[in-house]
Each structure stands twice: as C-alpha cells, then as structure tokens.
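hey all, quick one before standup. I had two proteins in the batch that finished overnight and I want to keep them in one place so we stop losing track of which output belongs to which input. First protein below, input sequence then structure tokens straight from the run.
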Amino acid sequence: MTQRQPHVIPGSFILKGMIFANILIYGTSLLFSGAQAIITWDPMTAFAPSYPALMAMGAAGTDAVKLPVLDIWWTWIAANWLHASLIHLLFNMVALWQIASLVTMAYGTYRMFTIYTLSGLMGFSLSYLAGIPTTVGASAGICGLIGAAWYFGRSGQSQAADLVYRQTRGWIVVLIIVGFVMPNINNWGHGGGLIGGIIAGWMTGHQLRRRSGRMDQILCMTLMLLTFLILCTSIIIGCVLMFT
C-alpha cells in the first residue's frame, strides 16, 4: 500500500503571493504616509514611506509599537513585509524571487515559507536584543533562505548540492561586504536571519533527506495564517494611528 502524499501548492504560487503581499504592504504604507511620503529623484530614497507610517504598521526594533497581548513580537513578523523605499523593495523582491526559487527546489514549497518566516522572526528579535531602534525589510527572511540553501549545499552529498554550496558561499561574502560598506544596513537582522535559516534548514530537513510531509504542510499553513492575521493587524493599526 502506497502512502498518500499531501497536496502540494505550486511553489511559484506561494512565491508570487509573497511578492504580491510585499508590494501591497509597501503601497499601503505609502498611502498612509500621504503628503509625508518622500518623493525625490534620489534613487536611494525615492518613494519612501514616512517614518510614522512605518512605525504604525509594525516596524521592528526597540521603538516598536506595543499592542495589548501581542506586545512587540507582532512587529517581528510585520517588519519582514515592510520596506523603506522603492529601491529597497525592488532589490529585495528580485533577491526573493531568485533565492526562494532555489530553496523551493531544495526544500519544497512548504518548508521554504516556513524557513522565510522563522528566519525573519529570528533576525528581528536579535535586532531588538541588540538595541536597533527601527528596522524593516524582507532581507532578514531572505538571508534565512540563503542560510538554508547553504546548509543544503553543505549536507546534501550530491553534485547539485555542491554547486549550491559554492554559490551560497559567494552570497554570504557579498552580504558581509555590503554590511560593512553600505550605511543603514541592519547586520544584526541579516546575521540573525542567516543563522535562523541554517537552524530552520537543519530542523526541517531538505528534499535529499526526506520528502515534504503532512507536518510540513500544517506548520506552513499555520505560519501563513499567523502572517495573514499580523498583516491585517498592521493595516488596521496603521490606519487607526495615522488617521485618528
């Protein structure tokens, strides 16, 4: 008797949904910013949401908005979907598309989303513990995907895994260089996300060790529901704080 495999949502569907959600939340933050949004020809700051709008919608850090019951931990999820400018969004979405596609092949659809979410949580929680006042962006989760890809390449024992290992080593070197060269880079978030991705990759396992199972599906769907509720909270709280 063959074991029935759980229904698998196409990886491209979830990935496109993640990118759509990032764009939607960015657009909402611009809308909430109103006249305070930064409209400039400087590509690094063009179409930047206002600081109050980002804080109201769940920017993470020691200055984060505390809510009853949720305290500040809700921002450790919300901040993973907020961006500080148009170029910030575009850069992260290109990276997310490329790296998440690779991780989906290595871990499967469900584990990819789980790794992204847990890595973001670790990156932003570590940023809080390090005393970073305000931080946003998908890069913590993306660094987590890089960490998971590195773990796959390190432990996969195959030619494909070896290629991934060499590629991800290059990405990690670039992350380190960018972190030291460019201003306003949250290295705590990047480092925490990277470590979180390695740990999540080890805990969930990859396709060369086992196929995705029912527990992977349940965990992913639970995190998707939690993320959806947090993003709805982000929009509601943002609307209340910015327009009342």
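OK second protein, same deal, sequence then tokens:
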Amino acid sequence: MLWGIRLWPSIKGLGQEVNGVINETAKVAKALDLPTNYSDAKQDIEAAIHFIYWNNGNKPIVIVGSSYSATLALLIAHENEKVKAVAAFSPGEYFPAMFIQDRIQGLKKPLFVTSSKEEAAAVSLLVKEVSKNNLTHYVPHEQGIHGSRALWESTEGCLGYWESFKAFLEQL
C-alpha cells in the first residue's frame, strides 16, 4: 500500500484556504487557543510519519516539505529512523532559536532540495554540511518560485522541477 504525506506550505493567516481548501487543523487549533507557531507543527509531522510508517508495513517513508515545513522535514529526517528520504522545497533558517545548518550536519539520507533561483544560494549554504553523495539540489533555469508551488502547472519552469524531483524519487 502506498501512502503519501503533504506538508502544507506556509500560509499567511493560518487557518485560511489555498486553492479552495481550508486548513482545518489550524482552524481548530485557533478555536481551541492552541499554539500555531511554526515549530508547533513538528509534533504533528512526527505523528503523521509514525502513522504512515505503521500503515506502510513499518517501512521507512519519504517526506516532503515546503517552506518552513521543509526545514522541519530536514530536522526530523536527521533524527528519525522512520524517514527514508526527504524532499525539501525552499527550506531555510526559519527558526531564530536554532541554527538549522548545524542541526542537519552529517545528514546521510537521500535529500532533494530546491527553491527559486533567488533562494538557491541560501539553500546551498543550508545543506553544505550534509552528505554530498545523497544530495540532489535542483536550481531552476527560470526565476522559479518559493516552496512546492514550483510544481504547479501555473509556475514558469514547473517541468524542470518535476523532472528533477521525479528523477530523485526514481533512484530511491
């Protein structure tokens, strides 16, 4: 059985909608006055990983993150044996209390990173201390766009992102 996980892109005004889909988790959290900071999402991602791992015959899984959740995916992948590989769309130093580059140093799992052309240098710096043998860093020829929206048909250059991402997944 194949399972997938979609780590939602950063949404200004958490609980609002993207493409007509309301972020129900954030909406309920706000209604219950629960914290909705970026780092609060980590426990939700870890719970989703555990659920999918368990439903996947206890086989490690691939996780995908966009924007701040891409950064969380990198952190979690480094620490969690249930994660086989990670794809991170526009990861960055989004958490002031942590220096992510140091926290993911030595990450040896297969890793796909990408971003807009403008963000590429910062992404390169972020992953500079991970295993180069397992790193795929796609830099678009076009300007590109922040996060997993790079895969949307409406994004100029989306085919380049897709080709690189599919090639990464096929080699796993």
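Flagging for whoever picks this up: Residues 87 and 112 are 5 Å apart (CA to CA). Residues 1-14 have pLDDT under 50 and may be disordered.
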